[in-house]
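User: Here's a structure from my thesis project, written as structure tokens. My advisor, Dr. K., wants to see whether a designed sequence matches the one we expressed. Can you design one independently, without my sequence as a hint?
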């Protein structure tokens, strides 16, 4: 397993101007790129939710394993995405969704990619062509049939997976290109659900996007400003 990172948040009652005055859910999202740079309708998915009660002294933290995987997903009636067939992504690598020889199933195959310096960033979709691969890119191809895909992270146990980005359906013969460092964003929301893609039109992040390898070791302070808005104060 690669190096892990920690994101921590605390509340305090020791100072009047940095108190949390109402119960708050902090939604943590993770994505290789904070924005869609090329035509893919992708949505962030709550990875973890940290709950803080008003006028409390609380400390909560999560451990991030930055190894990204791609998975097929099943969607429940409530919109929650459940990872299914999963394949870890290697930097500079190409993974291909293929039908089994029997034709009644699918599996992930790994292709050794050519290497060419490339400056493109974000998540893009296009017709399948010989890929130009940057050393920090991931290529996801589909040779099976239109399939709904998501990016996910493995939990600390190395087995459980949680989706982080809803990539949407990928038609047969096309590919996604994933690029950029894994970035964290945090939001204050009402009744969020882990695994259910977000509609973020009315939300501004409390934090981020921040590359996970830039996260400080100390905790962010969660509090309400005098005007009532919620904020995360960095520890420096």
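Assistant: Designed independently from the structure alone:
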């Amino acid at each position: 397993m690669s190096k892990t990172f920690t994101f921590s948040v605390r509340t305090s009652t020791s100072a009047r101007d940095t108190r949390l005055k109402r119960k708050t859910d902090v939604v943590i999202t993770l994505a290789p790129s904070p924005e869609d740079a090329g035509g893919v309708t992708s949505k962030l998915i709550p990875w973890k939710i940290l709950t803080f009660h008003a006028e409390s002294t609380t400390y909560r933290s999560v451990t991030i394993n930055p190894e990204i995987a791609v998975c097929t997903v099943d969607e429940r009636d409530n919109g929650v995405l459940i990872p299914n067939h999963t394949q870890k992504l290697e930097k500079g690598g190409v993974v291909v969704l293929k039908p089994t020889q029997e034709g009644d199933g699918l599996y992930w195959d790994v292709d050794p990619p050519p290497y060419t310096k490339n400056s493109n960033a974000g998540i893009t979709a296009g017709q399948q062509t010989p890929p130009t691969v940057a050393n920090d890119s991931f290529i996801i191809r589909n040779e099976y049939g239109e399939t709904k895909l998501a990016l996910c992270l493995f939990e600390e146990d190395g087995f459980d997976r949680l989706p982080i980005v809803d990539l949407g359906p990928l038609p047969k013969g096309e590919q996604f290109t994933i690029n950029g460092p894994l970035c964290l964003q945090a939001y204050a929301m009402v009744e969020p659900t882990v695994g259910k893609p977000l509609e973020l039109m009315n939300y501004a992040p409390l934090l981020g996007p921040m590359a996970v390898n830039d996260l400080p070791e100390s905790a962010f302070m969660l509090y309400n400003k005098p005007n009532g808005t919620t904020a995360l104060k960095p520890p420096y």
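When you compare it with your expressed construct, this may help: Residues 115 and 195 are 34 Å apart (CA to CA).
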